[in-house]
Amino acid sequence: MSEPNPMQKAAQEWYRKGTEALQKQNFDFAVESFGRAVSMKPDNVLYRQTRHGSLERMYGGNGSGARMSAVRLVGIRGRVKKSRMKKDWRAVDQAAEDGLFLNPWDAQLFADIGEAAVQREFQEVAEYAWKKAVKIDRANIAYNDALGKVLMEGNKFLEARECFKRICDADPTNGPARSMMTQCDAQSVMYRGGYEDAENTRDVAAQAETPVNAYDEDRKARKGQQANADAPGESEETDLRQAIRKDPSSLNNYLRLAEYYREQRQLTQSLELYEQVLEKAPNNTEVLEFREDVELEILQDKLADARSLSHKHPDKVRLKEKAADLKASLIDREIEILEPRIERHPQDMKMKFDLAQLFRRTKQFVKAIPLYQQASVDIRLKEDSLVWLGECFVRSGQVALGIRQFDKALESLVAADKPDPFKLAHYWQGRIAEKADRHDDADKHYTEILSVDYGYRDVQTRLEKLQGGNRDLTFEDEDEDEDGTDN
Questions:
Q1: Of the four, 123, 278, 300, 361, which is 20 to 30 A from 308 by CA?
Q2: In terms of C-beta density within 10 A (0-12 exposed, 13-18 middle, 19 or more buried), how is residue 278 classed?
Q3: Rounded distance between C-alpha atoms, residue 262 and residue 290, angstroms
Q4: Orientation angle between helical segments 6-23 and 27-40, nearest 10 degrees
Q5: Residue 125 pLDDT level (bands cut at 50, 70, 90)
Q6: DSSP bridge partners of 480
Q7: What would be the CATH architecture of the domain defined by 236-344?
Q8: Taking 50 as the threshold, does the pLDDT of residue 228 lie above it?
């Protein structure tokens, strides 16, 4: 028996350390450990998936990564470009992974990894990386083209066809993409029909002439089985369902199939599978949270559909009311889910911030205040939390405390980095100063806003009316728009 590969063994050990660190929410060490595992075994897709997932959690799912990541990535993109020119694909891969440390939602960096993986013949890594790139930038023609070709290499012709279809949808005149769709259709038929394994046309004819037992075929149909089942490896869904039938006690196969359905946006099927797992393991809070997340995604899709219908038929009040009811139901359910979840994850400041946002949107300012205070200790959430905390204080009648939060936030807020909280903090400071007849202060705050966004809210109108004296305003005359920010 041969000795295990020492590099593989070392990579497994780093992966184990990373997993332990992740369970303790020690994201820095977890990311470092998974990164070491990736560098030792760059063809292992699981190591990369776990590293990137840890990075997303480290940044609290903010969708943009580290502060000033766009500026800090300039040098890394230069490294990628130089390495690509030299065809040093290992260096391209490493530079792109370094870039994802700053922003794990950067589609181009995943595309760079995908390109390097293709050149290094890391099929699974290539497919994963290009799928990530397309997921982030779904309409990108180059990404869809590259993913489609990688999927075709893996004989996943139906998935590949969807990539080329998206290209045609974006550009109906794209002849090469339309040609690739036709090729996918042909290859799919050949692959399913056994042409790939036949040595000549006579073999194919022999396969085609195999007699069919009508009784057996009918019995299969009655059982809900396909007459021509997918070959192993051809359909991930079929493979997982077969694995479940062989070993119904293995929860991992249920979870993998549920995640597959979730990625395919077949959310009802995904939800059903998570519920089946919970019947077998009712105390598994991780699966419970997966199920809750899918439930929220279903509600979000329903709300999006209702809003779309309402926009298409603006004269129908019933559709508008339905969208409003769905929005309220979604927010209520989000609160129901997050309240017990933050008790299970007391160190997750992003989760507390999200719950505070929901309380603020439903005007439960007293409940939002302590959550914003806790979230503000996280450097990534500090300024946003302080600004919203200040608004909650003001709206609950504690204006002095509100001013203090705005002042603290503006000590470090930079308009170029975080324009929305910057403008909001100055807006509330201006409103407060205007109400207190401190017109010079109000003018200063409003001017700061206009220097960044000349059309922000009603700032121009307020500046013009300052000349005519103070307006008798309360702090309850602001409505909220659909994403939870004020109009």
A1: 361
A2: middle
A3: 10
A4: 160
A5: very high
A6: 486
A7: Alpha Horseshoe (1.25)
A8: no
